[in-house]
Design brief:
This protein is mainly α. The protein has one domain. It has three helices and no strands. It starts with a helix and ends with a helix.
Length: about 60
């Protein structure tokens, strides 16, 4: 019986999480942090691309 109660509570939690996802994110202010993380990843990609470009130019100059 306890197993069914636990399953029901987990199901209720999943339902509430899916239904009220946007409201939960607004309350916890997680969207701005996601935007910061996205900007960080973009900057990291740009730095990596620039490093590869500079490495390629260095190889060309040393030939």
């Amino acid at each position: 019986m306890l197993k069914y109660i636990v399953i029901a509570l987990v199901g209720l939690g999943v339902y509430l999480g899916v239904t009220y996802k946007d409201e939960i994110e607004d309350v916890t202010n997680s969207r701005p942090m996601e935007e910061v993380q996205d900007m960080y990843e973009d900057a990291q990609d740009q730095v990596s691309d620039k490093a590869e470009e500079l490495s390629s130019q260095l190889k060309d100059l040393t030939k």
